Amino acid sequence: MEINKDLIAASSTPIVLAILAEGDSYGYAILQRVRELSGGRMEWTDGMLYPVLHRLERLGFIDARWEIAESGRRRKYYSITSQGQAQLAEERKQWQAVDATLRGIWQSLANPIAAGDVFGRPAAPLTQGA
After folding, report:
1. Has residue 106 been placed in a domain?
2. Which of 103, 8, 111 is nearest to 52 (CA)?
3. What is the domain extent for residue 108?
4. Closest to 78 measured CA to CA, from 128, 14, 6, 30
5. Which of 6, 16, 20, 80 has a CB 3.0–4.6 Å from the CB of 84, allowing a cystine?
6. 3-class DSSP state for residue 115?
7. In this structure, is residue 130 part of a structural domain?
8. Residue 61 maps to which CATH number?
9. What is the reported pLDDT for 127?
10. What is the mean predicted confidence (pLDDT) over 28-52?
11. CA dist., res. 9 & res. 19, Å (int)
């Protein structure tokens, strides 16, 4: 299943903030964690991740620092700020509301006789022998 790019873009902020709430990380590790958490359904690229990281840093939700890895290469590590923690809590509330709304809609659509039609009109009464 391929996930719509708009949905991936909309979910990128809470996903990155949640990953960084687990602990400091760097770009490639964040990409791997997204793949792992999504069961391989979300395959982010550098070109998608780094603009998100730069925007979150500009907004004050994350901080960045350079470190030397064991391999000797420089790596830019990202960490969530207290402002980022607050934003993550707000994002969580919003996504829970979206999730609950969609679940309610899908449940209604799965049982159209009891719920009425998709326009909110009551279901037609059942008649015998029709």
Report:
1. yes
2. 8
3. 5-114
4. 30
5. 80
6. helix
7. no
8. 1.10.10.10
9. 53
10. 95
11. 16
Predicted TM-score (pTM) of this structure: 0.80
Q: Is residue 102 part of a domain?
A: yes
Alpha helices per DSSP H over 24-81: 27-37, 46-58
- At which residue do the structure tokens 């949640």 appear? 18
What gap in Å lies between CA 92 and CA 45, rounded to an integer?
24
d(CA 20, CA 14): 10
**Cβ-proximal residues to 112 (8 Å cutoff; 6+ apart), any chain:** 118, 123
The number of folded domains in the chain is 1
Structural domain contains residue 45: yes
| Sheet with 25-26, edge to edge strand ranges | 25-26, 74-80, 62-68
Please state, in angstroms and rounded to a whole number, the distance separating the CA atoms of residues 50 and 56: 10
pLDDT in tens, 67-116: 998 899 999 999 999 999 999 999 999 999 999 999 999 999 988 665 55
Is the pLDDT at 3 greater than 70, yes or no? yes
